[in-house]
Amino acid sequence: MSGPLEAVLIVAAIGYLLLRRLAGQPAQAKQMLVVPAVLTVIGLSDVKDVVHSPLALGFLVVTALLSAGIGALRGASIRLFEREGVVYMRYTAVTVVLLVVNVAVKFGANLLLGAIDQSQVAVLGNTLMLTLGVSMLLEGVVTMGRALRGEHKILWEKRRDGVARTSPWLDDLQRRMSADRH
User: What residue ranges are annotated as transmembrane (predicted)?
Assistant: First the structure.
């Protein structure tokens, strides 16, 4: 995928996700875990040029680790609440600030790399999908971990037709975590 097109699609997806999560939505494991994992794998396929440059690889490792940490903090900042027996989630002001910080870190790293070695910026620019996927995956893992410690139902997915599906595996995991607490 081309850099500018990829960036536009990513910004549109983030905007859509941000609006939905600011309004509050059911905590859906598929959306919080599988989609970011797929983004991460796709992002890994875009880093083939980075591994040939130690400088760009170093910047990628640092930005990926920072993105993971910020994603985990975002997961901890999300407000979880119950509605009709189901776990819902809502982004808070802190979550939004952390999302902006995450994007600023990525673009700031690209600018810094450009100041050090202009020829490497294009190489690192192709890693946005990877760092975004890693960040969203850690956000989802932390949020799911918090939701699993609660007593309310966690959805696997809520389809567009309104049908909500659960996961026997998640239900069992939640039961075991609840039994460990008591």
Answer: 53-73, 93-116, 128-148
- In a 3-state reduction of DSSP, which class is residue 87? strand
Matching residue, tokens 């008591």 = 182
Residue 119: pLDDT band (50, 70, 90) is confident
Angle of CA points 58, 62, 68, to nearest 5°? 145
Query: Whole-angstrom Cα distance, residue 165 to residue 154?
Result: 9
Query: Which is higher by pLDDT, 180 or 159?
Result: 159
CA gap 70, 127 in Å, rounded = 17
Residue 122 has pLDDT above 80, yes or no: no
Domain boundaries along the sequence of the chain:
3-181
User: With contact defined as beta carbons under 8 Å apart, do 93 and 35 qualify?
Assistant: no
Tell me the two tokens of residue 26: 């059911």
Nearest Cα neighbor of 138 from 50, 77, 55, 58 is: 77
